[in-house]
C-alpha cells in the first residue's frame, strides 16, 4: 500500500511538471512595443505602424515622467525603455501595456491581485502580481508555439 501511494505521488509530481506551463520568475516583464505588436492573433504590424506607435509611446512616457519626477531613476529608465519591472505602479503598467487580458484577486506570494498579459507570437503569458498598487513579482512563460 505504501509503495502504491509513493508511486502515485511520484507520478503526480512528474506529470504536473511535464504538462503544466513552466512559469519562470522574472525581474522584468513584457516590453510595451513587443506586447503591442504581438498581442493580436495573425496580425502583422507594418514598420510605419510600429514607428507611429513608438512616437506616441515616447510622448506618453515623457509626459508621465515630467509629472512624476519623484519616481526612482531606475523606474524612469525602465519606463523610457518600455519595459515593465518589479516596483512599478498599476498606473505605470497601464501606461506601458494598457489593460490586461484579466485581473483577479490572489493570495500567492504576498500579493492581493494578479494581472495577466497574453501574447500570441509565440504564445505566452506574463503574470504581474501586485501588493496594493505595486508590482512585487513577475512570472512569465512562452510555449514557443505560434497560435
For the structure shown, list the relevant keywords.
alpha+beta; 7 strands; two-stranded antiparallel sheet
Topology (SSEs and partners):
Elements: H1 2-19, E1 24-26, E2 28-31, H2 32-38, H3 47-67, H4 73-81, E3 83-85, H5 90-97, E4 102-105, E5 113-120, E6 123-131, E7 134-142
Antiparallel strand pairs: 1-7, 2-3, 4-5, 5-6, 6-7
Distance between the termini: 44 Å
Largest sheet: 5 strands, antiparallel
Question: Strand tally, please?
Answer: 7
Which consecutive residue ranges, at least 5 long each, have pLDDT under 50?
8-21
Counted by DSSP, the helix tally is: 5
Strand content: 25-35%
Proportion of helical residues: 40-55%
Rg over CA atoms, rounded to whole Å, is: 19 Å
Count of folded domains: 1
Task: State the secondary-structure class.
Answer: alpha+beta
Mean pLDDT: 77
Shape assignment: globular
Task: Give the spatial strand order of the biggest sheet.
Answer: 1-7-6-5-4
Spell the H/E element sequence. HEEHHHEHEEEE
Amino acid at each position: 500500500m505504501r509503495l502504491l501511494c509513493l508511486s502515485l505521488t511520484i507520478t503526480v509530481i512528474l506529470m504536473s511538471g511535464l504538462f503544466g506551463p513552466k512559469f519562470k520568475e522574472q525581474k522584468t516583464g513584457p516590453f510595451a512595443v513587443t506586447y503591442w505588436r504581438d498581442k493580436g492573433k495573425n496580425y502583422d504590424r507594418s514598420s510605419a505602424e510600429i514607428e507611429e506607435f513608438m512616437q506616441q509611446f515616447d510622448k506618453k512616457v515623457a509626459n508621465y515622467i515630467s509629472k512624476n519626477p519623484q519616481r526612482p531613476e531606475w523606474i524612469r529608465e525602465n519606463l523610457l525603455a518600455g519595459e515593465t519591472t518589479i516596483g512599478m505602479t498599476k498606473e505605470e503598467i497601464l501606461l506601458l501595456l494598457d489593460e490586461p487580458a484579466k485581473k483577479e484577486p490572489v493570495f500567492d506570494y504576498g500579493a492581493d491581485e494578479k494581472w495577466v498579459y497574453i501574447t500570441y507570437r509565440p504564445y505566452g503569458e506574463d503574470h504581474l502580481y501586485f501588493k496594493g498598487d505595486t508590482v512585487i513579482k513577475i512570472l512569465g512563460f512562452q510555449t514557443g508555439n505560434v497560435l
